[in-house]
Amino acid sequence: MHHTHEAGKAGRTPTPEEAQVVGLAPLLEPYFRGAVVRELMPAPLRDAMETHRLTPRHGAVLPQLLAGQPLTVGEIARRLHVSLPTASELVGGLSRAGIVERTEDPSNRRRILVSLAEQYRSQLETFVVRRGEPLLRALDGLSPSERAGFLAGLTAWVREVQS
Predict the structure, then answer these.
(1) Of 2, 40, 149, 154, which has the fewest beta carbons less than 10 angstroms from its beta carbon?
(2) What count of other Cβ atoms lies within 10 Å of the Cβ of residue 4?
(3) Phi and psi dihedrals of 97, rounded to 5?
(4) How far, in Å, CA of 69 to CA of 63, rounded?
(5) Along the 163 residues of the chain, how does pLDDT read in single tens digits?
């Protein structure tokens, strides 16, 4: 069922099951706070982020680059659902910190490709594993059909938040 909410109008009353689900979401918030994230981040990566005053928005770019395939600034903007100027600003900050590298696309010199600097790759991989451990432990306790349902629900939630 698709639900919409218009500004200034009261939303519908959730069912008891929906209220239970909605009530769980705020319990995850402390996991996303800066102090928790900071503790999990390897020191060299954390130091680079702090020295250059990079924010969690800058950090959101980094997992996009872990696959190893360089991305254009436009691709980063689309993945993060931000404007092209915002993506360019985020990449610029990460580049100044030495965390990402920008190179010309050999097939189109007007395009800039962004990749993770090799010196930070293993640190970012360590960080992603540390951040994902609670989720992976939770998934370990689910059956394959429960995992599929969880993935479908989470994917639908992300789509709604991003639209």
Answers:
(1) 2
(2) 8
(3) -80, -10
(4) 12
(5) 455 555 555 678 889 888 888 888 888 877 777 677 888 889 999 999 999 999 988 998 999 998 878 999 999 999 888 999 999 999 999 999 999 999 998 888 888 999 999 999 999 999 888 888 888 899 999 999 999 999 999 888 888 887 7
Alpha carbons 143 and 141: distance in angstroms, whole number? 7
Angle at 119 between CA 47 and CA 102, to 5 degrees: 95
Distance CA 125, CA 134 (A): 16
Dihedral (CA of 21, 24, 28, 29) sign: positive
> Residue 25 to residues 10, 32, 89, 94, 121: CA-CA distances in angstroms?
20, 12, 30, 30, 31
Give the Å distances, CA to CA, from 2 to 12, 79, 156.
Answer: 12, 23, 10
Amino acid symbol at 27:
L
pTM of the prediction?
A: 0.71
Question: Which residues fall within 8 angstroms of residue 58, CB to CB, at 6 or more apart?
Answer: 49, 90, 93, 94
DSSP letter, residue 116: E
